Amino acid sequence: MLVGHLLFFCNKDFKMGPGLKEEQTKRGSKCFKLTFVFFLLYISSFVVPVTGYVLRSCHVSHINAICIKKRLTAVPQDIPSTVKSLDLFGNKISKIRVSDFKKLSNLTKLKLKWNIISEIDAGSFTNLNSLRELNLNENKFTGLGDNIFEGLGSLTHLRINRNQIKTVASTSFKSLTNLTFLDISGNKLYRITNVHTILQHLPNLLELLVANNNLTSFQSWELTNSSLKLAHLDLSENPIGDFRITADVFPNLTWLNIGGSSKKHHIKWDVRNKTFLRRVSTLDISGLQIPSEDMKTILETFNSSLTTVKMNNMKRTHLTALINISCSIPTVSSLQLKSNNLFFISSNLLQLCFNVTELDLADNPVKNIKDDAFKYLQGITVLALNHNRLSSVPAAIRNLPALQELDLSKNNITTLGCHDFANLTKLRRLSLHQNSISALQGCAFKDLIHLEVLKLQNNSISKLSDAFKKYLPNLRQLRLNSNKLTAIKFGEFKGLRSLQNLSLHENQIQVLEKGCFTGLTNLMDIQLQQNDIKKHKDYKDSFRDLINLKQLDLSDNKIKYDESSALPDPPFSHLSNLETLAFTGNHRKGKSHLPCNFLQGLTNLLHFSGRNLQLLSLHKDIFNHTPKLQKLDISSNELMDLSSELFNPIRNLKSLYISRTNLGSLDFLIGANLTQLEFLQAKKNQFSVFSEEAVESMPALTYLDLQGNSFTCDCDNAWFLQWTENNQQTQVSDAYNFVCNYPPHLKGMKLLKLDIRSCTVDTEFICFISTTCTILLFMVASFTYHFLRWYLAYAYYIFLAFLFDTKHKNKQAPNQYDAFISYNTHDEPWVINQLLPKLEGEQGWRLCLHHRDFEPGKPIIENITDAIYGSRKTICVISCRYLESEWCSREIQVASFRLFDEQKDVLILVFLEDIPNAQLSPYYRMRKLLKRQTYLSWPRASEHPELFWEKLRQALKTREDLGDDEFNLIVTDRP
Fold first, then answer.
1. pLDDT in tens, 410-466
2. Is the Cβ–Cβ distance between 333 and 357 less than 8 Å?
3. Distance CA 523, CA 865 (A)
4. Which Pfam family would be a valid example here (predicted)?
5. What is the largest CA-CA distance in the chain?
6. How far apart are CA 335 and CA 660, in angstroms?
7. Helices 763-805 & 2-14, crossing angle to 10 degrees?
8. What is the Cα–Cα distance from 539 to 549, expressed in whole angstroms?
9. CATH number for domain 806-957, candidates 3.40.50.720, 3.40.50.10140, 1.10.10.10, 3.90.550.10
C-alpha cells in the first residue's frame, strides 16, 4: 500500500513544470529507485525466520544425533534434517508415529533400542528411503503388523531381538527387498512357519538369527520350497527336538549355530542328503546337551566341508569323545573348547587333532598340561590358553614350531625362564598380561626373532633386566603398562629397532634417564601417563632419539613448573614430528605455570592437552612454536582471563576446550582470529553474557557448549537467545537447560523462557513508520520547493547574513567609499567610459573598483568583503555575463548578506541589458521581494540618459533605511 502511494506521488510530481522534459526524466528515475528500495524494505518485514539448531534433548556431532537415556516419551521433532545417524537408546518411547521421521530423509542409521515401543503406525518409515540400519532391540512388540516396514526399501540390517513377538503378518517384511541381515532372536515365534512368513519376502537375506524363540522343531518343508541365499543361520538356545532337512533349501549356508539348549534332551537329526549342507564350514554346537551318539550323527553330516567346530560349555557331555569325533573329520582345522571344566590336558586328549591349526582352550580351570599334550599338533599356528590356572609357561608349547599366536594371559604365571619359548621362532603375537610376573630375565625372549606384539601389562614387573637390549628385532608393539617399574635406564630398549608403540603408563616411574629410548628411531606412540615423574630434569633429555614420534602422553604425573620463564633445554625440542601431546593433570600442591618455550620444537603439533594443571596464566608466546595446532584443551585450570594474543600464532585451531577455567567472558575471542574454529567447549565458567562480537569472530563454529554457566536474564543476552534458537549453523548444546542466575527474582528460570520482546525492535513497525515518514517528507519537500522555494531562500539568506555578517561589520570606516562597483570584466568598458566619468568626474562620488582599489596580496574574498562593508552602497552592474561569473556571484552574495543583516538600502541594481526572468539569479528575486523600487535599466534610459544618471545620483544620495521610499526610480518592477 505504501509503495502504491509512493508511485502515485511520483507520477504526480513527474507532470509538474511543463516544458522541462529532461528535468522530469531525471526526477522520475530517482523516484523509481527510491520506490524500489522502499519495496524491498516493505517485503523484508514479512520474512519468517527459519527453525533454529538448538536441540532440547539431543546432542549432534557432525552427522550423528545422540539422544541416549533422556527419558523421552516421543521422538524429538527438532532433529536437523541433515542428520544421518539417530540414536534414541534407553528412553521411554512407546509408539512410533507417522510424523516422527517425516523430515529425516537423510537417515542411514536409526537406533531405538531399549525403549517401550509396542506399536508403529502405518507409514511411519515412508520417508526413510536412505535408511540402511534399524535397531528395535529390547522393546515391547508382541506382533508385527501389515506393511509395518513400508518405505524401507534400502534397509540392509534389521535388529528386533529381545521383544515378545508372537505373530508376524504376511506383509510385514514385504518392503525389505534389500535386507541382508535380520536378528529376531529372543522372541516367541514358537514355530518355524512364522520364520517362513518372514523369509518369503527377503530374497537377498544372508544372515538370519532366530535364537531363543522356543522353536521345538525345524522342518525344511515349513520354510519354503525354493532355495534361499542364507549364508549364516543361528538357531541356538531353542529346544529343537526334531531337525529335518528334506530339500536343498540352504545351498549357500556356511555358518550354522544349533547349540545352547539349556536342558539335556534328545534331538532327532534327519538330513536326508549330506549335500544339503555341503558348504557349511563353521558349526557351533556349544552348550547342546545331547548324547554322544546324536552328536556323532550331527558331525558326520558335515564331513565334507567343516573347518571350524565350536564346542564351548559342554559340561554335561563326554568331551573326549566329542573331540575325537570332531578331529576325525579331515577338514576340521579350528577347534574351540572354551568353558569346559578342563583341569588337565593329557597326552591323548588331542591325539586325533593332527589337522587342527587353531585351538582355543580359554576359560577353563587348567592347572597342568602334559609335556607331550600337543605333540600331535605340529601344524598349529594359534593357541589360546588364557584365563586358566597355569603357574608357569607349559613346556608343551616348545614342541610347536609353527606357532604364530600364543595367548597365556589371565593365568598365575610368576616367572619366565630362558627356555620357556624355545623353538618358537615363528611366533608373532605373545600375550602374557594379567599374570603375576615380577621380573624379566635377559634371555626370556631370545628365540622370538619374529615376534611383533608382546603384551606384558597388568603384572608386577619391577625390573626389565636387559630383556629388550639384544632380542626382539621385529617387535612393533610392547605393552608394559600397569606394572611396578620405577625407572627407565639408559639403553633399556635399544634392541627394539622396529618398535612403533610402547605403553609404560600406570607404573611407578620417577626417572627417565638420558638415552633411555636410544635405538627407538621408529617409535611413533609412547604412553607415560600415571607415573611419578616430578621434575623437569627427570625427563628433559629422554626424548632426543625419538625423531619419528607422533604421540606422547605424560598426563597425570607430578611434573610442576613454578614460573613461565624460558627453559634452557626445552624437553621436546627434537620432536619435530610429534602430532599429539597430552600433559594433563601434572600438578602437586600449589599453583603452576608452563614455561614460555615449553612447546619449542613441536612445529607439527596438532593436538595439545593441558587440562588440570592448576595454571594461573598462559604466556602469550607459548604457542609461537606450534603453528599447525588444531585442538587445544586447557580446561580445569584457574586462568580467569585469556589474551587474544595467545591465539594469534594458532589460526588453524578447530577445537578449543576451556571448561572450568573461571573465565568471566569470551571477549578474548574477538581479536583472536579463530576463523577456523568449529568446536568450542566452555562449560562451568563464570559467563553471564555471550556477545554478538564473540560469535561473529568464529564464522566456522558448528558446536558450542556453555553448560553450567551463570547467565544474566536481561536484554544483554537478548541477541544470544535469538541466535541460539534461529541460527542454522551452530548447535548450542543443552541450551534448553541453561538457567538464570541474575537478577535474583529470575534465578533458576530457564534462560530460553525469558521474554525478550521488550528488548527487540519490531522490524515491521519500524519499516512502516520509516517508509511513511519518508514518503510524507518527500511530498512536503516537493510541495515546498514548487510553491515556496523563494520564500525559503529569503529566510535562508537572512540566516546566513546573521552568521556571516556579524563578524565583518565595523571592520572598516563605513564612509571610506560612497559605492563599490560590482561588474564583470566584459562590462568594464561601460564602467570606465560611462559610469566612472559621470559618478566620479561630474557628481564627485568616491567609488571602489576592484582593478584599482583592491589591496595587492590580500585574498580576493577579503578584498570583496572589505570593499562592500567599507562603502555606503554597492552598485551591481548586471548583464548576462555577470550572472555567469563566479566572483560576481560572490560579490552580490556578500552585498545581500549586508542588506538582510543591517536592514539598510545598501544595494543598487543596474541592468545593462534586458534579461529574461528564467535567467535571473535568486539574489535579484530576493531583492525584488525586499525592495521593489531600487533598480535601474540602462536600455530603457537610452532616450533620456541624463535622467538615468540623475536617478542613480539620487539612489546614492538616499538614506539607507529600507523603510524610506522617498525616491521613485525609472523602473518600478519587472515581470
1. 999 999 999 999 999 999 999 999 999 999 999 999 999 999 999 999 999 999 989
2. yes
3. 92
4. LRR_8
5. 159
6. 54
7. 40
8. 16
9. 3.40.50.10140
Fold assignment, 453-559? 3.80.10
Burial class (CB in 10 A: 0-12, 13-18, 19+), 326: buried
Name the CATH superfamily for 57-215.
Ribonuclease Inhibitor (3.80.10.10)
d(CA 707, CA 530) in angstroms, rounded, equals: 29
pLDDT digits (tens, 9 = 90+) for 582-636: 999 987 677 889 999 999 999 999 999 999 999 989 999 999 999 999 999 999 9
Give the span between the Cα atoms of 294 and 266, in whole angstroms: 8
| pLDDT at residue number 264 | 67
pLDDT at 934 over 80: no
Straight-line distance from the first to the last Cα atom of the chain, in angstroms, rounded to the nearest whole number: 44
65 in helix, strand or coil?
Answer: strand
Cell numbers standing for residue 697:
569472530
Domain limits of the chain?
2-47+763-791, 57-215, 453-559, 806-957
d(CA 236, CA 229): 20
Dihedral sign, Cα of residue 183, residue 184, residue 185, residue 190: negative
DSSP tag of 561: B
Q: For residue 675, what are the contacts with CB-CB under 8 A and spacing of at least 6?
A: 651, 697, 698, 699, 700
pLDDT at 863: 82
Question: What pTM does this model have?
Answer: 0.73
Q: What kind and span of H or E run contains 930?
A: helix 922-930
76: cell is 524429538
Own/partner contacts of 80-83, CB < 8 Å, gap of 24 or more, are: 80/53, 81/105, 81/106, 82/106, 83/107
Helix (H) / strand (E) element for 359: namely strand 358-360
Distance between CA atoms of residues 656 and 760, nearest Å: 32
Cα gap 680→678, rounded to integer Å:
7
Name which of 155, 118, 112 is nearest 140 in CA terms.
118
Handedness of CA 468, 470, 471, 477 (dihedral sign): positive
* Residue 566: DSSP 8-state: P
DSSP letter assigned to residue 851: H
* Residues 413, 432 contacting (CB under 8 angstroms): yes
Question: Got the DSSP string for 287-317?
Answer: T----HHHHHHHHHTTTTT--EEE--S-TTS
What are the Cα distances from residue 178, in Å, to 131, 195, 205, 219?
Answer: 11, 17, 8, 26
Of the candidates 580, 584, 511, 520, the residue with the CA atom closest to the CA atom of residue 541: 511
Q: Which residue has the cell 623353538?
A: 423
- Beta-strand relationship, 133-135 and 109-111: parallel
Q: What is the pLDDT of residue 802?
A: 59
Q: Which residue from 90, 86, 143, 134 is spatially nearest to 115, judged by alpha carbons?
A: 90
DSSP 471-497: S-TT--EEE--SS---EE-TTTTTT-T
- What's the helix, strand, coil split of the chain in %, to 5? 25, 15, 60
Q: What angle do CA 690, 692, 695 make, to 5 degrees?
A: 85
Dihedral-angle region of residue 857 (phi above 0 means left; psi in -120 to 50 means alpha; beta otherwise): left
| Cα–Cα distance for residue pair 654/607, rounded to 1 Å | 10
**Judging by DSSP bridges, how do beta strands 429-431 and 282-284 pair with one another?**
unpaired
String of DSSP letters for 155-217: --EEE--SS---EE-TTTTTT-TT--EEE--SS---SHHHHHHHHTT-TT--EEE--SS---E
Matching fold, domains 57-215 and 453-559: yes
Residue-averaged pLDDT of the chain = 85
